[in-house]
Amino acid sequence: MNDELLELYQELILDHNARPHNFGAMQGSTHHAHGLNPLCGDDIEVFLQLDGNRIKDAKFSGHGCAISKASASLMTDAVKEASTEEAQAMFDVFHRLVTGENVSDLERENLGKVAAFSGVKEFPARVKCASLAWHTLKAALNQAHEQVSTE
Predict the structure, then answer these.
(1) What are phi and psi of 106, to 5 degrees?
(2) What gap in Å lies between CA 119 and CA 38, rounded to an integer?
(3) How many whole angstroms separate alpha carbon 22 and alpha carbon 71?
(4) Tens of pLDDT along 67-99?
(5) pTM over cut 0.85
(6) How remote is the C-alpha of 4 from its chain's centroid?
(7) What is the DSSP letter of 123?
(8) Percentage helix, strand, coil, to 5, in the chain?
(9) Which residues of 57-79 are buried (b: 16+ CB within 10 A; e: fewer)?
(10) In the chain, what are the domains?
């Protein structure tokens, strides 16, 4: 990872951990899921307000490490106003990105600031931290009722 990307990654994580966007429970959510990483204790709930297949609002609550919290913050920013299909596509690209699989330049560009999490692949133990909120988003979209676990 080049120094510039590493610096952006660190700045985004620190900023979104200290001042997370869309943090807090949502009254009247249409979709909800709970995710837990039992090994490290990251515990995230994702709340969505859908209008048809469009995500009108997205919030999260819970606690976890800086990477987990920052990922949830950036994810909720990214999926607001997206269609459920677009959010699913973002999940797929994000998962490939953090696990070191091939992601095209266009896919990376379409992720916006979320693409800074490409640095997580350099720290395999942190991939679960970065992806917990995204797996929880996917469960919320699919209206899965069981708790999401990264184990």
Answers:
(1) -65, -45
(2) 23
(3) 12
(4) 999 999 999 999 999 999 999 999 999 999 999
(5) yes
(6) 22
(7) S
(8) 55, 20, 25
(9) bbbbbbebbebbbbbbbbbbbbb
(10) 3-149 (3.90.1010.10)
